[in-house]
Design a protein that fits this description.
Elements: E1 2-4, E2 19-21, H1 22-35, H2 41-66, E3 68-76, H3 78-84, E4 101-109, E5 114-115, H4 133-139, H5 162-178, H6 185-199, H7 201-207, E6 217-219, H8 220-231, E7 236-241, E8 248-258, E9 263-265, E10 281-283
Antiparallel strand pairs: 1-2, 3-4, 3-8, 4-5, 6-10, 7-8, 8-9
Helix pairs in contact: 1-2
Length: 289
């Protein structure tokens, strides 16, 4: 578990705070005090402040991470996502996107299926994930043209960081704090995309004869059982019903992920396979119109 390093002597304004594990921080201060590097009056009180205030500063994330035992991987179908938008002109599915995309990878309390959110951690850094831009445009695109300052004049294949900024602030920093296998921003985003690539849900459904269509409905149970048989874990699915047409569309698929293996696994507490009121049959749309 990584923790923000408290401000110490020698820290310069504007300097990026580096995250270290709590035992490492304690050891660092003990060494400095023992060696006399903090034996000035200022250093003495700094040591006292660390001893008495560190448990308070770290308690919030410690409590959060003590509940972390799973991830919830949420994948969305871009064509349905855009159908949900009031102004569909604001929603763009890049040509490179041909399959299910990441909605989010959320640290979760496996006993309750509640998300663990809003931990302390570094802000999103565009440069930290600059090498993932191309991959993101395929597996984790921002489909909304209004989200993010750079989106107002973007081309169809461009992506702002607005979606990633939100997901990192709400969920990614908790993965960084709680999962020892996630040591950077790039680790977090890569983890989600790698799982989605490995699952290849579009191909799994296709192999079972479930193809996107704007007119043909498919059994909800067939979707769930097909994925469960292929992956070995039961998914939860979500649907969207268009108020005007009354048609219901397959919207989202969720799986539990074991942090120790980065593999989809059975949930400790099973998610409702129709947790957002999917009827017995739904449309798996081919287009977003």
């Amino acid at each position: 578990m990584r923790w923000p390093v408290p401000v110490t002597a020698g820290f310069q304004p504007g300097q990026e705070v580096v995250s270290l594990k709590v035992p490492r921080i304690v050891s660092l201060y003990q060494q400095r005090c023992a060696m006399g590097s903090l034996r000035s009056v200022h250093g003495f009180f700094l040591c006292l402040a660390f001893i008495f205030m560190a448990p308070v500063a770290f308690a919030s994330d410690a409590s959060q991470c003590s509940r972390f035992s799973s991830y919830t991987l949420s994948m969305e179908w871009p064509q349905t996502f855009c159908r949900k938008e009031t102004n569909r002109a604001d929603c763009v599915v890049p040509e490179a996107v041909t399959g299910w995309t990441v909605h989010g990878l959320w640290p979760t309390d496996g006993e309750t299926n509640e998300d663990i959110t809003r931990c302390e951690g570094p802000a999103y850094s565009e440069s930290a994930v600059s090498n993932l831009v191309q991959e993101r445009s395929i597996y984790w695109p921002d489909l909304l043209s209004w989200r993010g300052e750079s989106n107002s004049q973007r081309d169809d294949d461009e992506n702002s960081d607005g979606f990633w900024i939100h997901e990192w602030a709400k969920h990614g920093v908790c993965a960084l704090a709680c999962d020892p296998n996630v040591t950077s921003e790039a680790d977090y985003f890569s983890l989600a995309m790698n799982i989605v690539k490995e699952l290849d849900v579009s191909q799994v459904l296709s192999d079972a004869g479930i193809e996107p269509s704007d007119t043909v409905s498919v059994s909800t149970q067939k979707i769930v059982s097909t994925l469960q048989n292929a992956v070995g874990a039961k998914p939860a699915i979500a649907c969207y019903t268009d108020d005007d047409s009354g048609s219901t569309y397959l919207s989202e698929i969720r799986f539990c992920v074991d942090p120790s293996t980065s593999k989809v696994s059975g949930c400790r507490r099973e998610m409702d396979a129709t947790h957002r009121s999917c009827p017995s049959e739904v449309i798996y749309p081919k287009t977003s119109d």
